[in-house]
Amino acid sequence: MQFAKTIKFGADGRGTARIGSLLAIGALLFAASTSNGYAQEIDSATKAHAQRLAIGVCGSCHGSEGRSQIPKYPRLAGQNAKYLAAQLRAFKGQTRGDPDAVGYMWGMAGNLDEPVIDALGEYYAAQRPAPGIPGNPTLVAQGQQIYQSGVPDKGVPACASCHGPDAHGTAEFPRLAGQHSQYLIKQLSSFSNNMRNQPVMHVVAQDLSQAQLKAVAEFLQAQP
Amino acid sequence: MSGFRIDVRLTSLATLGALAIYLAGSTAAWAVPSFARQTGMACEACHTVYPELTHFGRAFKANGYVLDNLKQLRDVDARKQELLELSQMPPLSIMVQASYTQLSKSLPDLSQAGVNGLAQNGTAELPQQLSLFYAGKIAPHLGGFIQLTYANDSGTFSIDNTDLRYANMKVLPNEHSLVYGVSLNNNPTVQDLYNSTPAFGFPYAASNAAVSPLAGTQIDGALAQNVAGLTAYLWWNESLYAEFGVYRSAVQGATNSITGAAGPLDGTTSNVISGTAPYWRVAYEYNRGPHSIELGAYGLDVGLYPGGTPSSPQPLSGPDNHFSDVAGDLQYQYLGDQHLVSVAATYIDETMHLDASYAAGAVQQSHNDLKTWRVATTYYYRRMIGGTLGFFSTTGSTDAGLYPSCPAPTEGSPPCAGVVTSANNRPETKGWIAEVNYLPWLNTKFSVQYTKYNDFNGGGNNYDGAGRSASDNNTLYFLIWFSY
Predict the structure, then answer these.
(1) A57 to chain B: which residues are within 8 Å by CB?
(2) Per-residue pLDDT tens for B72-94?
(3) Mutate which: A70, A73, A186, vs B, most B CBs within 10 A
(4) What is the pLDDT of residues B344-355, one digit of tens each?
């Protein structure tokens, strides 16, 4: 397994200039990582097969229609299709290396056909997202501050600048609203230790303290 | 703690039979790496720690063991109907258990009649058990779990737990799933999804060199590997489960006395099911956060002709011995990333109408009953180190035929060895099992298990009428268990 090398910034890389650089690089990297060459129309048989897979196989962990009740497994309902398809390709290609990806998803996605991957992305994107789960108000408020404004003195940009003001994501960036905080914290840890290969998120996660990670995750889990 | 049989003529034979069946039923099974190779997923997807299933493991089993992520060798006809779907890797596994068993007090040495002595204490078994499995997909909706086991005590290979199943899934209009399937299996509850029922319940491995109690209900392993059952099941939304089926005798090693062929069974075979035995099961599972809870009930209604042996046949006709088993079960699981907790409990109530044995004078009363409780709580840290504390209890009515005491001494005959007798003709067996496990890898387990008996075959001190105490049967058991 190959992990990406950490992006190194110079001593003067903190502050506003660094935030701008991160955002620009992030946009480029996410666009590259989530683009694919399988944008053609998905036929009805493939859609039906994907629906069957989603309900009969994926649903055992990710919940009925992708609204997982188990915090270990991410909620997929309402997630953007391109992001989901990119993750399935990363599992299939064994390039996403966080522990649950290796233990569960490498095998699960290993035999998925390319059109089915796209159809699964579209299936989940079309599902009604799960409602947020209310959290500790103090933590939620702290998390909201970080999400909306970042941590300027650490050079951490506002999460909202990529993931959207309502955390619903965009065509390229994943939806985070309503996601299980346990899952979010694990992903941020995996970005931080490079088990999940995403250079921009690596830098962001590395610069946040455990308390800040928890606050952001708590805020996001509570969002509708 | 399972397995007794009734023989209308020779209660000592019944005792030996019970012991043999207990030992056969106690062979462990089960999580097999061929499933992991087939799905490409690590053991932890389907198991907390093998063999206990997670929700995903239950779904994999209910769906017929067919989920695969391997390249397939395929064939289709002109209508795109699948004719063949073979994994390029056969789903084969091997399991080895090696053990050492130490009783609190060794057993009497019967090798020389009339000589007071004790057998060597401490039984080393390498292997205690070696199993070969075909476990995985056979065809698109057909899968199997077939276990062939060499056991140290028998010194032979024989068929062990087997579960062949067809399963399919329908997407309902509200996007809920309905899994439906059929299981052909050889042990009631081996097909079940929960670890609170007997076949895959705690203890997952037990010594076959320890002393087994006389009493156990039919559904608790007494019929294992000597029946064939066909059951159909539904699993709605992966939460509500219902199953119904029937079992019929399929005795291993039995031959027809005229043709020498495998059947039909005749009076030279003992404990043959009269017709078919209905089995039923309902369960409801609720998952919320890291918590999963299941509440269920199951049962078996079986009539057994006592039958006989080649040297002492008895016709398979007339009254039978009827056993009605009704059971409840509960399973709770907490699945965190670091900490895993499970609780599994079952209560089995057996009502016996032993008309055949009563008519033959082999039991004191035609109506008897047994009640078995088992509760086990398990904790694991990071699936690596953990343990289980379990309580077991079997109680029931008194009967000198079912739970015989030592025969009256006669001139010139050796003293009664006891051990598998009951001085008060009662079945009470109660105690605790404590187990500590270490798994350096997910497919390798080192265990130390201690079984403590408060009562055994009806009592504590001198339970057998030959001076042995229940605590003498306390068992220390070391086990190395790995699968590949």
Answers:
(1) 59, 67
(2) 888 888 887 888 988 888 899 99
(3) A70
(4) 999 999 999 999
Q: What is the mean pLDDT of chain B?
A: 91
Contact B44 A103 (CB under 8 A): yes
Q: Which CATH architecture has domain A15-28+132-222?
A: Orthogonal Bundle (1.10)
Q: Do A108 and B176 touch (CB under 8 A)?
A: no
What is the model's pTM? 0.88
Q: Pick from B221, B309, B298: which is nearest to B265 by CA?
A: B309
CATH: 1.10.3720.10, 3.40.50.720, 1.20.1090.10, 1.10.760.10. Which one for A44-125? 1.10.760.10
Mutation site for B-interface testing, chosen from A46, A55, A98 by largest number of B Cβ within 10 Å: A55
Among A169-173, B20-24, B274-278, where is mean pLDDT lowest? Answer: B20-24
* The token pair that represents A174 in the structure block: 């994943």
Q: List, by residue range, all CATH 1.10.760.10 domains of chain A.
A: 15-28+132-222, 44-125
Say what the pLDDT of residue B78 is.
Answer: 86
User: Nearest chain A Cα to B168, which residue?
Assistant: A56
- Could you tell me the domains of chain B? 11-483 (2.40.160)
Contact A64 B171 (CB under 8 A): no
Distances (CA, A) of A16 to A35, A151, A200: 29, 10, 15
Q: What's the token pair of residue A81?
A: 């299709």
Q: In which residue are the tokens 């992520």 written? A: B69
For residue B228, give Cα distances in angstroms to B67, B186, B194: 25, 5, 21
